[in-house]
């Protein structure tokens, strides 16, 4: 692993692990690098760092290097890593936290336009209770300026019925909206805030 040689000792942030642990609620000290998370990760072969390397970089304080990485943006939050980890560490919660920190600290995303994709996806879920792919993609294309890219793929998906013209709305659309509203008002910087926000929604 060449992670350490990528960081300069004067750029290490020894408070970084405390910050990520508190915000993600993950017991990162328990990781002993068995790599079960990386072995199951479906995007590990496309990213600059694998899931266990993300944890290692946090432990070493390589904040600057990690916030600039593609790994934090390409994680698809599938939770495979969390299900496989013998210590119950969810890298998904960690990458969410790292994205938040990167945005707060104005670190540009390593993968261009991916924050626009995330926002387009979330806006679609907020509007319909679940994602409506055509509207989400139109929003993404307009905001990213990539209007003509992937047209053939879009037509193929449409022909196969994978791009429905009308959104399929969930019965609990209002509940989903409540989750968004409360999430937008909640300070997630302290461990446990995620749970309290979702519990509040459940209590209605
Ligand atoms: S599976 Fe868990 S303990 Fe093993 S390397 Fe990944 S995060 Fe660390
Ligand atoms: S949640 Fe992210 S890091 Fe974990 S297995 Fe899925 S894609 Fe990989």
> Helix fraction?
55-70%
Order of helices and strands: HHHHHHHHHHHHH
Distance between the termini: 48 Å
Which cofactors or ions or other ligands sit in this model? iron/sulfur cluster
Q: Helix tally?
A: 13
CATH superfamily of the largest domain: Alpha-helical ferredoxin
Q: What are the segments in which pLDDT stays under 50 over at least 5 consecutive residues? A: 194-204
Largest beta-sheet details: none
> How much β-strand is present in the residues?
under 5%
Structural class: mainly alpha
Q: How many domains would you count in the coordinates? A: 2
Shape: globular
Rg, Å, rounded: 19 Å
CATH architecture of the largest domain: Orthogonal Bundle
CATH fold topology of the largest domain? Fumarate Reductase Iron-sulfur Protein, Chain B, domain 2
Q: Could you tell me the mean pLDDT? A: 85
Could you tell me the number of beta strands? 0
Top-tier CATH class of the largest domain: Mainly Alpha
How is this structure best described in words?
The chain has 204 residues and is mainly alpha-helical. It has 2 domains: 13-104, Fumarate Reductase Iron-sulfur Protein, Chain B, domain 2; 112-187, no CATH class. 57% of the residues lie in helices and 0% in strands. The protein has 13 helices and no strands. α9 runs antiparallel to α10 and α9 crosses α12. The longest helix is centred in the middle third of the chain and has 15 residues, at 114-128. The protein is globular and about 50 Å long. The protein starts with a helix and ends with a helix. Residues 31-37, 51-52, 55, 84-87, 89 line the site of one iron/sulfur cluster.
């Amino acid at each position: 692993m060449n992670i350490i040689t990528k960081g300069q000792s004067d750029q290490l942030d020894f408070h970084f692990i405390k910050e990520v642990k508190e915000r993600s609620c993950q017991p990162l000290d328990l990781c002993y690098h068995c790599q079960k998370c990386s072995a199951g990760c479906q995007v590990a072969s496309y990213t600059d760092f694998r899931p266990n390397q993300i944890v290692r970089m946090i432990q070493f304080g390589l904040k600057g290097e990690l916030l600039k990485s593609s790994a934090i943006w390409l994680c698809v939050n599938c939770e495979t890593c969390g299900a496989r980890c013998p210590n119950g560490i969810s890298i998904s919660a960690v990458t969410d936290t790292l994205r938040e920190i990167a945005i707060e600290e104005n670190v540009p995303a390593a993968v261009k336009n991916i924050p626009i994709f995330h926002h387009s996806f979330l806006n679609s879920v907020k509007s319909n209770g679940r994602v409506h792919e055509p509207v989400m993609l139109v929003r993404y294309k307009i905001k990213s300026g990539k209007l003509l890219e992937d047209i053939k793929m879009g037509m193929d998906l449409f022909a196969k019925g994978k791009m429905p013209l009308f959104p399929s709305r969930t019965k609990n659309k209002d509940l989903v909206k409540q989750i968004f509203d409360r999430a937008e008002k909640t300070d997630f910087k302290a461990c446990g805030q995620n749970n309290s926000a979702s519990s509040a929604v459940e209590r209605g």
